Design the sequence.
């Protein structure tokens, strides 16, 4: 199944909502946190739990129309490859919030342009013309709040993540 590795630069809020938005765009997905230096994601089971105990049947069973989130916990992200592979065999979509390795770069636009494949306008600077990659629409506050609260979110910003999925 498709695995979307994302590395988010320079923005704590975007580093949390981007993987959740990417997962919400496809409906049924699991977000796996492997970014030790990013703000933590919220969830019941952690990557550390799955590394220590192995994924349970419940962990490997997608819930139609739901996004599951596996925070990193105290795991070493380098030990998570078997967990990600197991999840990718059963979940229709897997989003990995990556700290290292090959990933799709996501960056906010608030100063000099950081080389990235996905750009998030912030309103601090105009979006440069001719920017390569995908430029997301502005992130509505209500969408960010819904994603942070673990609620279903939709709208243009979430839908824009489908273009990212289509490109991988």
Sequence:
């Amino acid at each position: 199944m498709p695995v979307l590795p994302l590395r988010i630069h320079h923005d704590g809020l975007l580093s949390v909502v981007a993987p959740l938005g990417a997962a919400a765009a496809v409906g049924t997905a699991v977000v796996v946190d492997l970014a030790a230096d990013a703000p933590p994601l919220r969830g019941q089971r952690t990557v550390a739990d799955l590394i220590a105990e192995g994924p349970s049947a419940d962990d490997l069973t997608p819930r139609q129309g739901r996004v599951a989130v596996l925070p990193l916990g105290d795991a070493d992200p380098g030990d998570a490859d078997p967990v990600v592979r197991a999840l990718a065999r059963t979940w229709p979509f897997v989003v990995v919030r990556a700290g290292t390795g090959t990933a799709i770069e996501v960056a906010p636009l608030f100063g000099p342009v950081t080389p990235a494949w996905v750009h998030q306008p912030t309103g601090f600077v105009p979006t440069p013309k001719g920017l390569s990659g995908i430029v997301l629409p502005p992130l509505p506050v209500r969408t960010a709040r819904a994603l942070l609260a673990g609620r279903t979110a939709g709208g243009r910003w979430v839908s824009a993540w489908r273009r990212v999925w289509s490109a991988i």
Remarks:
- The mean pLDDT is 94.
